[in-house]
């Protein structure tokens, strides 16, 4: 009887309409994207990808996936000494024009996006070193 | 970057005097297969390879500790029962049951003419725990943990085999 009442009640209210701005970009998203994106004066996309991989390895990441045609590198590491928290990162490398390459890094901590600008600054500083100083 | 980054890099990296990163990649795959790994992912253009193997993770130390803790908490429960309490305080610790050992490696050229290649490999493991119980409460199995493998011997073994497979000397960085 109670179940029937509940079902009837649910029917009466009907499905809830989704809020309108569900897919609209928010201010926070734009800021985050700016933090995550850098453009470098690198002509060869391959050089940029190898530098991304080298700097992720230097930062202690395990390379989980790499795809050259798509310019995609995925890595993960545990936030040592705690073995339960995982930091994941996805980096995409795209040729912006003939002289420049755009690199975007998305980092997550336990499935939550990292919004701390310092994290991305650190990553790009390491990447810069790998790109411009690390050649030997 | 942490102070351990540099020694870790040195442990994980070797250089080879060869123009062919493909050769290093396929030889590495063969060596990893010899070591019981299954190759799970590759990208030839980037010289990327990943492999994994499953093994038992049971250790005597953990089993003994589990036994000792269960006995002690069992005795405690008996004393508590003698004192009129009905609380069950027996603690059965979950132990490591299964582990997946993984390897992720990159072979890349390090000079403009592609005469030398650098190989960097990282070994790590994922460990799954079994079930346990605390008093009347069950601890479900499946708790997971990951750790890097920092034993230099594993890296030395891998590079010794790889050097033999490609007839080249592995230079430390």
Number of helices, where a helix is a run of at least 4 consecutive DSSP H or I residues of chain B: 4
Structural class of chain A: alpha+beta
The biggest beta sheet of chain B is recorded as:
6 strands, antiparallel
Range of strand content of chain B: 25-35%
- Quick one: how many beta strands of chain B? 9
Percent of residues of chain B in helical segments? 25-40%
> Which value, in Å, is the CA radius of gyration of chain B?
23 Å
Question: Helix proportion of residues of chain A, in percent?
Answer: 25-40%
Q: State the helix count of chain A.
A: 4
- Which chains have the largest interface? A-B, 24 and 25 residues
Poorly predicted runs of chain A: none
Envelope shape of chain B: elongated
* Quaternary structure of the protein: heterodimer
Number of strands of chain A: 6
In short:
Chain A is an alpha+beta fold.
Explain the overall architecture.
The complex is a heterodimer of chains A (136) and B (173). Chain A is of the alpha+beta class and 136 residues long. In chain A, 39% of the residues lie in helices and 28% in strands. Chain A has helices at residues 2-13, 27-36, 45-58, 117-133, and strands at 37-40, 62-67, 72-78, 86-95, 101-109, 112-113. In chain A, strand 5 and strand 6 form a beta hairpin. In chain A, helix 3 crosses helix 4. Chain A is globular and about 65 Å long. With 173 residues, chain B is α+β, with helices and mostly antiparallel strands. Chain B is 35% helix and 34% strand. Chain B has four helices and nine strands; from the N terminus they run αβαββαββββββα. Chain B has helices at residues 5-12, 21-34, 60-82, 152-166, and strands at residues 13-16, 38-43, 48-56, 91-92, 96-109, 117-129, 132-134, 137-139, 144-148. In chain B, strands 1, 2, 3, 5, 6 and 9 form a six-stranded antiparallel sheet that branches. In chain B, a hairpin with a 7-residue loop joins strand 5 and strand 6. The longest helix of chain B is centred in the middle third of the chain and has 23 residues, at 60-82. Chain B is elongated. Chain B starts with a helix and ends in a 7-residue tail after the last helix. Classes of the chains: A alpha+beta (136), B alpha+beta (173). The interface between A and B is medium-sized, with 24 and 25 residues.
